[in-house]
Design a protein that fits this description.
With 120 residues, the protein is of the alpha/beta class. It is built from three helices and four strands; from the N terminus they run ββαβαβα. The protein has a four-stranded mixed beta sheet with strand order 1-3-2-4. The longest helix has 16 residues.
Length: 120
């Protein structure tokens, strides 16, 4: 399993990137995809919809070992921001657990330091 991207049926859904921790994988978030992308089907409100992106940390879970060194938190955060832009998201929210929380924090710090308001 590689990275996961599921768009909500709601065109106004907020993009959300979820980052797992260690020892873990992005499979931990699979149970959340339905309720996050289609809250109405789970007795929720359509206004609470998300487009969900669930990458796999390099070298963890289902991700292969990086072929080069230097995959620190800053580089991973930068790597996360790039596909979000390619997917057409100009703004998004982020959540992480364990090491994923560290990557998520770096996303927010990098966004605030550059004046870029993409990550909330």
């Amino acid at each position: 399993m590689g990275d996961v991207h599921v768009r909500s049926k709601n065109p106004d859904a907020l993009p959300l990137i979820l980052t797992h921790g260690w020892p873990s994988s992005n499979a931990d978030f699979l149970i959340l995809i339905g309720p996050l992308t289609d809250p109405v089907a789970h007795r929720g409100d359509a206004a609470d919809s998300f487009d969900v992106v669930v990458p796999s940390l390099p070298g963890f879970g289902f991700s292969g070992k990086p072929t080069e060194t230097g995959w620190n938190v800053g580089r991973i955060a930068s790597a996360w921001a790039e596909p979000m832009k390619r997917l057409g998201y100009s703004r998004w929210a982020a959540q992480g657990s364990d090491w994923g929380a560290v990557v998520t924090t770096e996303l927010g710090v990098a966004s605030s330091m550059t004046g870029d308001s993409t990550c909330r």
